[in-house]
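Key result, reporting period 2: structure in, sequence out.
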C-alpha cells in the first residue's frame, strides 16, 4: 500500500486543470490516466469564451495550439440555414491536441503524470490499479463518462433519457472546403432525437460530432442506417455526412445529460462529467470540466471539504445545465424545433442570450 496526499483519477480537461492548479500552488499531485498518448475523444471540439478564459488562466494559449476562431453560429433546418453572431469569440480545437497540451502543462507545473494505467476500483480514498493499491488523503474523480467501480455516479432519474455520442473527422477537398464554408462557424443541425455539430479543427479537418437518443440509434439498427435515415430526413445535414464507411466513428453510450452530483463525501472531489453533465448541444462541457477542476483545487487548498465543494459546484452548474436541457428538448422535438428556429431567426438577441446563459460563468 502506497500513501499519497493527492490523487487525481483521469487526465481529461477536468483532471488536468486540477493538477495544474494544485501543482502551481506547491503541492505534488499524482495523476493517473489510462491512455498512453494522444488520442481522439467523442467531443465536438467547441471552446466557448469561458473555456478560452479558463485555459489562459491555466497557462495554455489556445491560438498557439492552432485553435481556429469561431464567431458565428449557423443553425440548419432541413433545407435552410441562417447565422447569428456569437456574443464573444469562441474557437475550434481537437481534443487530441487540447488534452495533450493540458497534461504537458500539468507535468511542467510539477504534477506527477502517470499514463497507460487504468484504475480498477475505488473504495473511499483507496484506489486500486492492476498492480498497486494507493491510499489518497484527497481523491479527485475525473474519469469523465467512465464509471469507476465503487464510485459510480448515481444516475437514478437520468436513466430514461440517456444519449449516445458519436464523433468522426474527415478532410474536405479544397473546392468542397470553400463550398462548405465552415471557416469561423459552428454549424448545428438539430433533428428528431439529437443533433449534429460541425467545425473546422486545427489540422483543417472537419470535426463532426453527434448526440442521438439511445432509443433512436437502437431503432435505426446502427450508425450506418441512422446516417442514411438522417440524410433522407434532413438534406442539408445529408450533404455534410461523410460517405458510409469512409471514416471510423468513435462512440460513447449512456450519456446522462442534465445530471449533477448534488452531495459529496469528505476527501472526495468529483470533477467534470463526474460532477455535472451539460447537454452537449450547448458546447460548454470542457468549460465546466476546467471550472470544476480549478474550483476543487481551490477548495482543497482553502481547507474546504469535498462535501462543501460538491454542493457549491452543483449550485454553480444549475443554471447552465437547466437552460441547456430546455434547449435540447426544444431542438429534439419536431414541433418545438420549428418554433425555436423561427424565434432564433426572427430575434437575433435570443440566440445570443441562449449562448450566454449556457456558459458556466455567464
Ligand atoms: C457528443 C458530444 C459532443 C460534445 N461536444 C462538446 C463540445 O463541442 N464542447 C464542449 O465544451 N464540450 C463538449 N462535450 C462535452 C465534453 O466532451 C465533456 O464534458 C468533457 O470531455 C468532460 O471532461 P472530463 O475531464 O470530465 O472527462 P473526459 O474528457 O472524459 O476525460 C476523462 C479522462 O479519464 C480517463 N479515464 C477514464 N477512466 C479511467 C480509469 N479507469 N483510469 C484512468 N483513467 C481513466 C480517460 O481516458 C480520459 O482521459 C461533448 C460531449 C458529447 C457527448
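The corresponding designed sequence is given below.
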Amino acid at each position: 500500500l502506497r500513501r499519497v496526499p493527492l490523487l487525481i483519477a483521469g487526465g481529461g480537461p477536468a483532471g488536468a486543470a486540477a493538477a495544474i492548479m494544485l501543482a502551481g500552488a506547491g503541492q505534488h499531485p499524482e495523476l493517473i490516466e489510462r491512455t498512453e498518448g494522444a488520442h481522439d475523444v467523442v467531443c465536438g471540439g467547441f471552446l466557448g469564451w469561458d473555456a478560452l478564459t479558463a485555459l489562459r488562466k491555466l497557462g495554455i494559449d489556445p491560438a498557439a495550439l492552432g485553435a481556429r476562431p469561431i464567431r458565428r453560429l449557423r443553425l440548419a433546418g432541413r433545407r435552410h440555414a441562417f447565422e447569428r453572431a456569437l456574443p464573444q469569440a469562441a474557437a475550434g480545437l481537437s481534443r487530441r491536441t487540447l488534452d495533450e497540451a493540458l497534461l504537458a502543462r500539468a507535468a511542467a507545473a510539477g504534477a506527477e503524470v502517470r499514463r497507460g494505467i487504468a484504475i480498477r476500483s475505488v473504495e473511499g480514498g483507496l484506489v486500486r490499479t492492476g498492480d498497486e493499491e494507493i491510499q489518497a488523503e484527497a481523491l479527485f474523480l475525473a474519469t469523465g463518462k467512465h464509471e469507476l467501480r465503487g464510485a459510480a455516479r448515481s444516475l437514478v432519474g437520468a436513466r430514461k433519457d440517456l444519449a449516445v455520442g458519436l464523433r468522426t473527422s474527415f478532410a474536405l477537398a479544397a473546392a468542397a472546403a470553400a463550398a462548405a464554408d465552415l471557416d469561423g462557424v459552428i454549424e448545428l443541425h438539430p433533428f428528431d432525437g439529437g443533433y449534429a455539430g460541425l467545425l473546422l479543427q486545427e489540422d483543417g479537418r472537419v470535426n463532426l460530432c453527434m448526440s442521438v437518443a439511445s432509443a433512436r440509434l437502437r431503432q435505426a439498427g446502427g450508425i450506418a442506417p441512422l446516417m442514411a435515415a438522417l440524410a433522407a430526413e434532413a438534406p442539408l445535414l445529408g450533404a455534410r455526412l461523410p460517405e458510409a464507411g469512409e471514416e471510423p466513428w468513435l462512440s460513447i453510450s449512456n450519456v446522462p445529460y442534465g445530471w449533477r452530483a448534488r452531495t459529496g463525501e469528505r476527501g472526495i472531489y468529483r470533477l467534470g462529467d463526474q460532477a455535472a453533465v451539460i447537454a452537449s448541444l450547448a458546447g460548454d462541457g470542457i468549460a465546466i470540466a476546467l471550472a470544476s477542476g480549478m474550483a476543487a483545487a481551490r477548495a482543497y487548498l482553502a481547507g474546504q471539504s469535498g462535501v462543501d465543494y460538491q454542493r457549491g459546484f452543483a449550485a454553480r452548474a444549475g443554471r447552465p445545465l437547466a437552460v441547456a436541457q430546455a434547449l435540447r428538448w426544444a431542438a429534439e422535438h419536431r414541433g418545438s424545433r420549428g418554433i425555436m428556429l423561427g424565434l432564433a431567426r426572427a430575434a437575433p438577441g435570443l440566440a445570443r442570450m441562449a449562448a450566454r446563459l449556457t456558459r458556466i460563468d455567464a
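The CA atoms of residues 176 and 182 lie 10 Å apart. Residues 9-15, 32-35, 41-46, 51, 118-119, 142-146, 148, 165, 209, 211, 252, 255, 272-273, 280, 283-287, 289 surround flavin-adenine dinucleotide (CB under 6 Å). This case is discussed further under Risks and Mitigation.
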